[in-house]
Design a protein that fits this description.
The structure holds two protein chains of two kinds. By secondary structure, chain A is of the alpha/beta class. Chain A is built from ten helices and ten strands. Classes of the chains: A alpha/beta, B mainly alpha. Chains A and B meet through helix 2 and helix 4 of A and helix 8 and helix 9 of B.
């Protein structure tokens, strides 16, 4: 059974069709790349899968459950984590709090226990902070734990987003351009980290990425979008040679003469 | 240091009625305590969740009038009207929370102003129930008896002072527990980036409702106290002017700090008393203070002091 299945998914913003007739299956343990020219609907698809945007039509199933009508916080609790292309963070919280916060709804003692200061709640909070610290160390952010998240550099903020997603041990991790704006050595670091997420933690990954090197090195399979439609779904090497994909990226072979009339 | 400051503040407050000969100051302190309950309550919504609400005065009025109506129509005692006032204000808080789930920023602020206006109009116009502009009378707080024994008697200014002080202490403690818990961290997260908060699995809707209800319930408690303190209720005490003053207390004192709104309540309750001599210029001074605070101290007095401390170390 696929972990994630999109069936004839459609998203429309007024008259603009951002995603149309999209079918997509992701098997457990796969790293699937999602590429396409600017405006082809990659981030929109990520927003549909994670419930940030509602579907216009179609159906998305995650782990055997129809998640298309669910709000994003419910989908998140089912085990779908994500990062954002334009970095997002809680600017008034520390780095440690930013990373630990997704654990809150998953702690057994709940809000009431925390408000009343029960020992069990305090113990859980301590464990959550410990877990967050481990991840900060893993992502090279240990020394910034008590600093405001705002003070981190772009590269460090990307690492913080990865840590924030990892802390809940997601089944599916949707990465929206994790290498965007990073210097080449850091791109290598991201490649290594993403591979370890899958190999060591068994996390299935949907990777939206513009940096082709990342896609080529990591992905088992690449899905290509153009104008909201899927135009290819294959091994990275075959996709790169697909004429339809080449046309989508650099245009058709003929010079169009329509404009002259 | 925080603990020491709290201890000094508590001991100082307890000593005031014994040390100060002038009962006028004791009376001002009672009003300060009641406004601390309002401002600390509003801090949960405005400071922590970042939702501008200009309805705290309405909830204050709902608490006061619930007590007054229950006493005048059913002859119920303070020990019943107090929980009833808290409950009814909390229920109206739930009502106002509904638009807050769909609106944000200025639009929510306008909705809360509308709510405040409707409540004020009901208090002035529904004369059979509220007495309109003539208000409703109250009697002093009845002694509390349990199993035929008198447990507590509130009589005169000094004992009311301690009742108000105790109520304020409980309100501050509740607000502090809420703000210091996981819920408080989630409120801050919602304030910073609600979309992200939802994306990591936080139930932003429920959390905002809790903030609105808790905030309104605290204001309701303040309202019941002021009704018994003044010995009567009039609509003018619960107008938008009160709501705006409470917002100013939170903003000038320092949002999302708990201690900030307490300082704000002291400043904005004591200032009109100090400025009594310059009655004509009162509003000008008020306005200037607000503008200066928002321009130079966006995090309020508490934020300014914290910045000074950080700059020194």
């Amino acid at each position: 059974m696929p972990l994630l299945e999109c069936a004839s998914v459609r998203k429309q913003f007024g008259g603009l069709v951002a995603i149309d007739k999209l079918d997509l299956k992701i098997e457990p343990g796969e790293i699937v790349g999602l590429i396409g020219p600017n405006g082809s609907g990659k981030s929109t698809l990520a927003n549909l899968i994670t419930g940030i945007l509602p579907l216009s039509a179609g159906r998305i199933t995650f782990d055997g459950q129809d998640i298309s009508p669910l709000e994003s916080w419910k989908i998140s609790r089912l085990g779908v984590a994500r990062t954002f292309q334009l970095l997002r963070m809680f600017k008034s919280l520390t780095v440690l709090e930013n990373v630990a916060l997704p654990l809150n709804p998953r702690l057994g003692s709940g809000q009431i226990g925390s408000i009343l200061g029960w020992r069990r709640a305090r113990e859980e909070d301590r464990q959550a902070a410990e877990r967050a610290e481990e991840l900060l160390a893993f992502f090279g952010l240990a020394e910034f734990r008590d600093r405001p998240a705002m003070e981190l550099s772009i590269g460090q903020q990307r690492m913080m987003e990865l840590a924030r997603g990892m802390i809940v041990d997601p089944k599916l991790f949707v990465l929206d351009e994790p290498a965007a704006g990073l210097a080449p050595p850091n791109v290598d670091k991201v490649i290594g980290l993403v591979r370890r997420m899958r190999d060591d933690h068994g996390i299935t990954i949907l990777l939206i990425e513009h940096v082709m090197r990342v896609v080529q090195e990591l992905c088992d399979r690449v899905v290509v979008l153009d104008c909201g439609m899927k135009i290819a779904d294959d091994k990275p090497a075959s996709v790169a040679e697909d004429p339809k994909v080449i046309e989508a990226y650099i245009g058709g072979g003929r010079i169009r003469t329509r404009a002259r009339a | 240091m925080g603990r020491l400051a709290t201890l000094v503040a508590v001991l100082g407050s307890v000593a005031i009625p014994f040390v100060v000969e002038n009962s006028y100051i004791v009376n001002v302190c009672i009003v300060i305590f009641i406004f601390v309950i309002l401002s600390v309550g509003l801090d949960l919504v405005l400071g922590y969740c970042g939702q501008y609400s200009f309805a705290q005065g309405a909830f204050y009025g709902i608490g006061a009038y619930t007590a007054a109506i229950l006493y005048n129509n059913f002859d119920l005692s303070f020990w019943v009207t107090m929980p009833a006032g808290i409950l009814s204000a909390g229920l109206f808080g739930l009502l106002l929370a509904i638009p807050s789930l769909r609106l944000a920023g200025h639009f929510l602020a306008i909705t809360t102003i509308a709510f405040q206006t409707i409540v004020y109009l009901l208090l002035t116009q529904w004369t059979e129930l509220t007495g309109g502009q003539y208000g409703l009378p109250m009697r002093p707080i009845e002694p509390l008896s349990l199993f035929g024994f008198e447990v507590l008697r509130v009589e005169g200014t000094t004992s009311f002072y301690f009742l108000a002080f105790a109520a304020m202490a409980v309100a501050v403690l509740i607000a502090q527990r809420l703000a210091g818990s996981r819920l408080g961290a989630e409120w801050k997260a919602i304030h910073d980036d609600e979309l992200l908060a939802r994306a990591i699995g936080l139930n932003a809707t429920r959390n905002k409702i809790v903030a609105f209800v808790a905030s309104a319930a605290l204001a309701g408690a303040g309202g019941v106290l002021i009704a018994y303190y003044l010995g009567s209720v009039y609509p003018t005490d619960f107008s938008i002017w009160t709501s705006a003053t409470v917002v100013a207390m939170v903003v000038v004192g320092g949002r999302a700090t708990i201690i900030g709104p307490i300082i704000g309540a002291v400043i904005f309750t004591a200032m009109p008393e100090v400025l009594r001599a310059t009655q004509d210029y009162k509003l000008i001074i008020y306005g200037l203070l607000m503008i200066l605070a928002i321009t130079f101290l966006p995090d309020g007095a508490v934020g300014g002091v914290r910045r000074l401390i950080r700059a020194r170390s």
